[in-house]
């Protein structure tokens, strides 16, 4: 009976750890893609914004040009009026009429001056707007180049990892079947809250593999026993076991002598 429970807990932990390994691999795939998908989206947004601005500028230029043509038309009208007034002046009956018409001529002359002044102002605005357009166009050109580059990079990365990702997704489905449903719930919650995506960890060098808080020796023994599920007191992550401390290699002498022999060999021949 006790053995059966032991096996079950150990198996539960093993299944959970397997799921964690797969999920961590999937996390890594996403990490490699990293900010690229977002960068591509940002560039697309920026390009759209620039194109909108460009269209608006071009509309403004069209409106400026319309204004200029209106002023030019009104100048032509004034010109005609002045010609007409001058003709009328030839046939006036008295001084008063002559003066009145002179006033009108003067007024039209003023209108023409104002129109010229406005045309100059608008020409200047067009010049400035064209500068702005050129600057936006050059930014747009750069961004489009960036986007093309980033899209290519992303495509390569996705192509590279797609197979791994698909395999991991399949493995995950399989692994899920062996995971205790209640444990899965807390696993999902833990992963949601953990910044590194780790819900199941090993005790490494006497510390929690998730938050690095130290785990007392007695607790480590309990974790090793796997008679019950033990979680980290600090971060709540599930302990899957205690990682064996690998003793430092003592073969150094041997390998060195081997290397020496290997190095000596060609010389001897
Ligand atoms: Zn912890």
From TrEMBL:
Cited Pfam families: Zn_ribbon_9
UniProt feature, compositional bias: Low complexity: 258-269
Keywords, sorted A to Z: Coiled coil
Region feature Disordered, mapped onto this chain: 246-269
Keyword Transmembrane applies: no
Coiled coil: 40-74
Domain C4-type zinc ribbon as annotated: residue spans: 207-237
Protein name: C4-type zinc ribbon domain-containing protein
């Amino acid at each position: 009976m006790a053995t059966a429970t032991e096996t079950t807990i150990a198996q539960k932990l093993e299944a959970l750890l397997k799921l964690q390994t797969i999920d961590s691999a999937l996390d890594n795939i996403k990490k490699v893609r990293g900010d690229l998908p977002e960068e591509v989206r940002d560039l697309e947004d920026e390009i759209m914004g620039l194109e909108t601005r460009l269209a608006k500028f071009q509309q403004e230029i069209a409106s400026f040009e319309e204004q200029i043509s209106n002023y030019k038309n009104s100048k032509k009208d004034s010109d005609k009026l002045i010609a007409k007034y001058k003709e009328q002046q030839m046939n006036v009956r008295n001084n008063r009429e002559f003066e009145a018409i002179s006033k009108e001529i003067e007024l039209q002359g003023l209108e023409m001056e104002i129109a010229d002044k406005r045309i100059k102002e608008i020409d200047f605005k067009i010049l400035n707007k064209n500068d702005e357009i050129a600057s936006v166009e050059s930014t747009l050109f750069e961004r489009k180049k960036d986007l093309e580059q980033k899209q290519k990079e992303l495509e390569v990365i996705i192509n590279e990892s797609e197979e791994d990702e698909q395999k991991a997704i399949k493995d995950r489905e399989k692994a899920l079947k062996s995971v205790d449903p209640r444990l899965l719930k807390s696993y999902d919650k833990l992963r949601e809250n953990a910044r590194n995506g780790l819900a199941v960890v090993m005790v490494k060098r006497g510390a929690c593999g998730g938050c690095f808080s130290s785990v007392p020796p007695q607790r480590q023994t309990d974790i090793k026993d796997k008679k019950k599920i033990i979680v980290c007191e600090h971060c709540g992550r599930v302990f899957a076991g205690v990682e064996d401390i690998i003793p430092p290699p003592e073969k150094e002498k041997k390998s060195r002598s081997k290397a020496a022999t290997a190095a000596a060999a060609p010389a001897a021949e």
